[in-house]
């Protein structure tokens, strides 16, 4: 489990308590907990991802059961492909 130190300094006691319980539960389960400083680049990046993340070493059955094609919006795919076609000549027009 990776968490930022800012989660433990929240103004809300309930939020701090929630993350302390999560960390204690993970440690009790025998997993490793890493606390990253929000003052460091790695902590800043983790904070942008909600401040908490985990590396799972087992398959998540619920995720595998989801029909991934059913919820994907393919309308934006062409726009993303057009970005690659952007040339330096187009850049001069900006």
List the helices and strands and how they pair.
Blueprint: E1 2-4, H1 13-28, E2 34-36, H2 41-48, E3 52-53, H3 61-65, H4 77-84, H5 88-93
Parallel strand pairs: 1-2
Antiparallel strand pairs: 1-3
The average pLDDT score comes to 76
Task: Please trace the helix and strand order, writing H or E for each element.
Answer: EHEHEHHH
Count of helix runs = 5
What is the count of β-strands? Answer: 3
Global morphology: globular
Structural class: mainly alpha
* Beta-strand percentage range: 5-15%
Low-confidence stretches: 76-94
Question: Care to describe what's here?
Answer:
- The chain is mostly helical.
- The protein contains five helices and three strands, in the order βαβαβααα.
- The chain has helices at 13-28, 41-48, 61-65, 77-84, 88-93; strands at 2-4, 34-36, 52-53.
- The chain has a three-stranded mixed sheet, with helices on one face.
